[in-house]
Amino acid sequence: MPTNNGAARLAYVRSEIDQAAVAAARNTDDVQLVCVSKTFDAAEIAPILQAGQRCFGENRVQEAADKWPDLKARYDGVDLHLIGPLQTNKVRKALELFDCIQTLDREKLAHALARERDAGQPCPILFIQVNTGEEPQKAGIAPDALDAFVTFCRDDLALPVRGLMCIPPVDEEPALHFALLRSLAERNGLSGLSMGMSADYRTAVRFGATHVRVGSAIFGSRPALNPA
Ligand SMILES: *Cc1c(COP(=O)(O)O)cnc(C)c1O
């Protein structure tokens, strides 16, 4: 990390993404940097917006509702992604705030999204969260249940499913999980791959990530009591 200035760290992460894309013979425009602003307040986010970044990720609906309406009024073109769990009683609020929901992880949530869509609410772009490590404490669809869940969401409910998202187990080689996510997406005809965080976004780009979710490499470390 070259500096403690947010805008400079943003530029550094962007250049690292560019280099990883070039090394993988990919077009850097095909990799979206989702800047993860959870736990950071509007005053800390504003310099990143001023530096030109528009795509951000938050993992709590209420926290996003407290920070983003005002920031969206001040900066054009914000693209806000939900990267944390979504309770069905917060779906309506989430649809008002988010342009993309990366954590579609169960049938009940799919039904709730379809219900709002049927009531006339535009549906954001969706990613299905896959529990690639099959960790009991982690959200997401198990790999062997994924094909049926994609069919259910995309074909039965006609939801706008763009891709897959994963959070690999902390103690395993992330590349194995990135490769698995990619093969699951390919066999389901999905083009979006949200994978890679501060520690491993370069690897994720090599494995075909279309969205990398980077927080602490840009904003600095978060308080230890906020693991989500
Ligand atoms: C917090 C979070 C990130 C960003 O993590 P960093 O290690 O700070 O880059 C990415 N994805 C999800 C789902 C997160 O909750």
Topology readout:
Layout: H1 6-23, E1 32-36, H2 42-50, E2 55-58, H3 61-74, E3 79-82, H4 91-97, E4 100-104, H5 107-118, E5 125-130, H6 146-156, E6 161-166, H7 174-187, E7 192-194, H8 201-206, E8 211-214, H9 216-219
Parallel strand pairs: 1-2, 1-8, 2-3, 3-4, 4-5, 5-6, 6-7
Bound molecules: pyridoxal-5'-phosphate.
Question: Could you characterize what this model shows?
Answer:
The chain has 228 residues and is an alpha/beta fold. 42% of the residues lie in helices and 16% in strands. It contains 9 helices and 8 strands. The model has no long low-confidence stretch (mean pLDDT 95). The structure holds pyridoxal-5'-phosphate. The site of pyridoxal-5'-phosphate (PLP) has 14 residues, from strand 8 and helix 9. Pyridoxal-5'-phosphate binds next to strand 8 and helix 9.
